[in-house]
Specification:
Blueprint (H helix, E strand, L loop, with lengths): L14 E6 L7 H5 L3 E6 L9 H10 L4 E2 L2 E6 L5 H20 L12 H22 L2
Antiparallel strand pairs: 1-2, 2-4, 3-4
Amino acid sequence: MSPDRPVVRLPESELTWRFSRSSGPGGQHVNTTETRAEVLWSPTDSSVLTPEQKARVVARLRGRLVDGHLSVVASAHRSQLRNREDAVRRLEGLVAEALRPVKSRRPTRPTRGSVERRLDAKKRRSQIKRGRREW
């Protein structure tokens, strides 16, 4: 994890789980066990976030929210336990990324060399096109 990203630990009591049969490798095992894990979490009902943090998470992840819940699905592993751990880790990563403060852009000016290169390229291109017209 990067040092500027906050570490978020979501309590198990705030998570809702759904399990289903997963596709992929596993032979007959996949046809009988529900290893695919989906975790649902509601940022507005969370007790670990301040009201400002809740607003930031909802605003940043609004495209991923369905009925106010954030959903993460994991089915990469053959065991339900590992898929559960993967889903929680990815969910906490999403929330931590949403809580990270936005870096403000410092306006910069193009260098003189880059401006000159751009103008030279434009002149060369116009010469090529002008040469096509004059037969």
